[in-house]
Amino acid sequence: MKLKTKTVEVDLDRIKEDVRKAKDEIVTDIRVIRERDPAATSDLEVALLYSGFHAVLFYRVSHMLYEKKKFFAARLISQSARFLTGIEIHPGAKIGRGLFIDHGSGVVIGETAEIGDNCTLYQGVTLGGTGKHVGKRHPTLGNNVMVGSGAKVLGPFKIGDNSKIAANAVVLDEIPDNCTAVGIPARVVRRNNQKVDCDLDQIHIADPVAQEFCKMNLKIEALERELDELKKERKKENKE
Ligand SMILES: CC(C)(COP(=O)(O)OP(=O)(O)OC[C@H]1O[C@@H](n2cnc3c(N)ncnc32)[C@H](O)[C@@H]1OP(=O)(O)O)[C@@H](O)C(=O)NCCC(=O)NCCS
């Protein structure tokens, strides 16, 4: 149904659809927090007291404005949200359903970051750029990804579905599906629930300089043997 006033045409069906969608997203956001945080005791508590929930709510409004190219209003809302929650989500980021930002403070999600469905981020997480890329410069998280507190995921690559990034890891490269990545720079230590053996013995590692000396010694010995044989042949010839 369309109402036409003197100045504006209002598409009531579209507004109803937008409101239904927003309500659906809010209900999902509250439900996932109740499911994933054992400390959450009621929907009301989540709605009123969870800054991660507030940040996602503000994001959904700012993203809607961003899509309508109302960039200033979008940034105004996201920066106000940052002031209130300590969580900075750029309105241009693309975020799926069921994102849970636990505790929240210090979380930064960049403009070209993409987040799939049912992801969890803890406090201090950065989904950022390295400063070396233009265009798409922030990471893409698949579905059901968990990023631990303080972890930094930097660059335009993908973190696969169901993967976990350990607290304080710094991820600079793609992580496949169903993996756990830890450390700086992050390396995969578990894949499909199996331990990945990538231990490097830093103490008993071969010394490259000693290896070069060893090669040179072998060459000198071979040359000395050849020289001895030549000398012997020369002596024989002289006698004859
Ligand atoms: C990584 C994590 C998700 C566990 O994943 P997992 O697949 O169950 O992995 P495991 O616990 O089996 O650990 C695998 C290896 O990584 C190591 N590891 C785990 N977390 C690590 C971390 N943050 N930094 C470095 N190494 C870590 C483990 O010691 C283990 O090493 P080992 O194989 O030599 O014994 C979990 O340790 C983690 O970091 N969670 C973040 C939660 C968080 O941020 N909470 C904040 C709440 S306020």
Task: Characterise the protein shown here.
It contains five helices and 18 strands. It is of the alpha/beta class. The protein folds into two domains: 194 residues, Hexapeptide repeat proteins (UDP N-Acetylglucosamine Acyltransferase, domain 1, 3 Solenoid), CATH 2.160.10; 35 residues. Coenzyme A (COA) binds next to strand 16 and strand 17.
Brief descriptors of the model:
single chain, 240 residues, alpha/beta, 2 domains, seven-stranded mixed beta sheet, five-stranded parallel beta sheet, 18 strands, 19% strand
Kindly provide the name of the CATH class of the largest domain. Mainly Beta
Rg, Å, rounded: 30 Å
Largest sheet: 7 strands, mixed
Overall structural class, as computed from helix and strand content, comes to alpha/beta
Beta-strand segment tally: 18
Bound ions, cofactors and other small molecules, one mention each: coenzyme A
- Globally, the shape reads elongated
Listing every helix as H and every strand as E from the N terminus to the C terminus, the arrangement reads EEHHHHEEEEEEEEEEEEEEEEH
Low-confidence segments, given as residue ranges, are none
Enter the CATH topology name of the largest domain.
UDP N-Acetylglucosamine Acyltransferase, domain 1
> Ends: how far apart?
119 Å
Q: Could you say what the CATH architecture of the largest domain is?
A: 3 Solenoid
Residue share in β-strands:
15-25%
Total DSSP helices: 5
What is the arithmetic mean of pLDDT? 91
Strand order of the largest sheet: 5-8-11-14-16-17-18
Q: What is the share of helical residues?
A: 40-55%
What number of domains?
2
In CATH, what is the homologous superfamily of the largest domain? Hexapeptide repeat proteins
